[in-house]
Amino acid sequence: MAVEKNMVDKNGVSAARYRLQRIRKFTSYHIQLIDNRIFGRLFSAGWNKGFIANATSKQRTYVQIAEDKGDSELENILTLVIAMITSQQSDLNKILELIVKEESTSGLIDLTD
């Protein structure tokens, strides 16, 4: 994900307009959950420091925005992403274990003949 900046003219005054830009071609429910959490953390006061510091910048990724807010913010975001992915993998493993545990042979159709 990234943020794109476009300059627009409003009543003769040039102003920046920002919009989210999806860089990924594929997204899933689980990736969307991660994106939403990162969005909530990143887009607070000062998120556009990189655009202000570099007026010619047209696009900034989430990682660049986190870097603009400071090394500790980047570290917090990366820790959050790692924790969410680890949690999702753990949930998947638990579901797979339950499926294997609950599987049983059925006498309904015998395909061994």
Mean pLDDT: 84
Structural class: alpha+beta
Q: Which percent range fits the helix content?
A: 40-55%
Shape, per Cα inertia axes:
elongated
Separation, N- and C-terminal Cα atoms = 54 Å
Backbone CA Rg: 22 Å
Number of domains: 1
Give me the strand/helix succession: EEHHEHH
β-strand amount: 15-25%
Strand line-up in the sheet with most strands: 2-1-3
Number of strands: 3
Number of helices: 4
- Major beta sheet, specifics? 3 strands, antiparallel
Task: Extract low-pLDDT stretches.
Answer: none
What does this structure look like?
The structure is a single chain. By secondary structure, the protein is an alpha+beta fold. It has one domain. The chain is built from 4 helices and 3 strands; from the N terminus they run E-E-H-H-E-H-H. The chain has a 3-stranded antiparallel β-sheet. Helix 1 runs antiparallel to helix 4 and helix 3 packs across helix 4. The protein is elongated, with a radius of gyration of 22 Å.
Task: Tell me the layout of helices and strands.
Elements: E1 2-10, E2 13-21, H1 29-42, H2 49-53, E3 59-61, H3 62-69, H4 71-102
Antiparallel strand pairs: 1-2, 1-3
Helix pairs in contact: 1-4, 3-4
